[in-house]
Predict the 3D structure of the following.
Amino acid sequence: MNFVDVLFPVNLGPLTYRYKDTLSGSIRPGVVVAAPLKNTIAKGIVIEKSATIPSGQAKEIKEVQGYAPLLSINMIELLKWMSEYYAAEQGLVLKSMLPMEAFKQVKKRPGKNRKIMGYSVDICDVDSSISDAVIDSINKNKYRAFLLHVPSSVYEYSFIIRLLAEIKNVIIVLPELFLINNLYPLLNEMFGERVCLYHSELSSGTRCESIERILKGHADIVLGTRSAVFAPLREVSLIAVLHEHSDSYKQESTPCYSGRDVAVMRAFFEKTTVLLSSFCPSVNSLFNCQWGKYTLLKPADTAEKPKIRIIDMRHEKLSRPYLSKTVTDNSLKYISNDKKAMFVINRRGYSTLLQCMDCNYIEECPNCRIPLVFHKHDMIMKCHYCDYTLKNIPDRCGRCYGYNLKLLGAGTQRIQEDIEELMGIKTLRFDSDMARKKSDLKEMMGDIFNDDRKIVIGTKIMTGKIGRGRGFSMAAILNTDISLNMPDFRSAERIFQEILSLADRIDPDGTIFIQTRMPQHYLYKYLKNYDYTSFIREELKRRRSLRYPPYSRLILMKITAKRNLSKDLSEIVKRTDKTIEALGPYLSRCIKDKLEFKILLKSLSREKLHSAARIFIEEFKNVKDVKIRVDVDPVKI
């Protein structure tokens, strides 16, 4: 009797099945088979020959589908590694690796050809000695990891295009869909049918076509977002992860994998080259260069950049409590010269909180215990975490019942109202309140490009979608202190990266103004001179003294239940290794009738952390009303 282990894209591990001798010629690792699962016939992937013969009556595989394996042996090894490293069932890893269309027996069934609208991508000359080093590595067919610290996104794209002219079988990964839409038209124009899109926003028909083109070798350049790292290329010469510092490479649902780190591991299993690139590389990647895991490539930076001015709000003349006169005066100067200006504030809404002036009580979300934000247009107060909405604005304090309430702080709505009043000009607001649908977002993107829109006010959703060369000569960042004071050891790194990313979108002869009441913070010392290297050096020194990553490892546990698990979770923490530092359990939020608890585990040993995580997983494995999510190497704490 023949037995194999089959994996289905569900929350299970491999299951053992038997198959008839007539299927022996077609049963092999990676092929799609149809087999009974519970009360239905489901599609799964053959993983390997079964190491043991099952004691009971094994179910039988019904048929083999497809003409070739969907997963290579190397990809199956990657799947197993991801399951172990990210503490997730192999079936959930498979679900992330392959879209449902991959399990269907489909022939070419494309969706309508659609024209992708994007920005023009500039091209520049790149250092041939650096690109030759990467090409030489590719030709040796051995694993090697490079980190390219580029001077600008123009150089980053130009470098990739330089490589594509000489090599085949490449996977290019970008963190955001709008970046794909920017780069694809250029690649399609230069390399034609060789280029294939691969991301979750494609229609089912187009995704089927992409999979078939890749499997048949008709497309050897795969361009996509995070999931493109799993593209079923038969042979891979290069995996390129652009803007490698981006948090968007991290999947928030189980398995909570990092697309960047998985790209490195796929290259390792494929015995090929991986290229990570960014104009502000992550601390972790630069640390890996120091330890010899990656090879650092850093071309000379001769590009002009906008000037960065730090505005000390403690001593500045103010147009409004949250707007310096220097910022408003300079924005008037720029728009009078037919230039554009953007105001960035990472708070949507009108006011950031409603506070009692008598007892200092702040109106907060009953679920999350964080301040509610006032939205003037809708006359509501809203929690930006769980979407709890208070439709009747309180006129009395919830604690002392006094009437001395005051709206404090400013969000995008209030900034827009004040700027229009101060400057007498119509502005455009760009935040998630205004871009609730894709059609809204598309319309707003068009409005930004209009020459008559001289001032745009928005959050990170705006700055992430504005490309280079859009005529912005000034940016004012109004509330970096809030982000800098977040209880997250990565806050300074993240702000530096966000501002460098913004600088890449501002005209080289322009100016970036940063308002702060903390000008003495070490971040600003390096930021105003674009000295990212010295900043990283100090950042690593600080993290080492506090034993934060990359000098330690973290696992964030999220446990959701309808009952209070604080006591149970505290008891489980006591059963973990004594050298592990544990923060929590603490109640992070309440959604409807469910409570979410968090526990942050820190250790120098990855093995000890994973052992601790397994204790939690086993404890609640068969408890139906408790859900647990394990986030290894979390980017949000």
